[in-house]
Amino acid sequence: MCNSPADCKDWPNSTCNATKDGNMRCLCLPNFVWDASNLNCTHQGDTPSEVVGNPGSVDETSSRKISLSLIVAVSLISVIAFSSTIILVYLWRRKIAKRKENRNNDKRNRVLRTMNSEHVKDLIDSGDFREEGETDIDLPFFDLESILVATDSFSNANKLGQGGYGPVYKVILSTLPAYLCSC
Fold first, then answer.
1. Alpha-carbon separation of residue 124 from 83, 113, 137, 175 (angstroms)
2. Domain ranges of the chain
3. Beta partners for 55?
4. What is the per-residue pLDDT across 31-84, written as a single tens digit (0 to 9) for each?
């Protein structure tokens, strides 16, 4: 306890000031800190507690800040990398699905284009497909789209030869519906 700055003369670098609780005490001047081991006010940076290696030193505090910063940075980078990986896998799968869909559409469009081709129209219009009566038909009917798929659109690679009734094509049975063939 002190009443005037003269009461603090035994404590160098201190003066008599009021504390938070209203009592007057000898407090260290600005840029000075209380050194409990020497029982006096010392210049900031000269206290033994701020020497490297002591607990609570400035170096330990800064190394804690660096450690915390490093942990935050590594965590943030990990989250970004994981999120990026998830997004890239999603986009890659979507691209593969789109390619598959486009391939299926291309195949269907080829069949439809073939149905519009002159070769198929001539074949249909030739009149060779007319039956004399309902009793003469012993074979099942196949729709044109199934025949086009089974013969790969009357591809020359599937043509086996030429007969008295026209060209003969090899049929890929796995492409016909199950009810149309006895595979």
1. 58, 15, 18, 22
2. 5-50, 118-127+139-180
3. none
4. 888 887 777 788 876 544 444 444 444 455 667 778 888 999 999 999 999 999
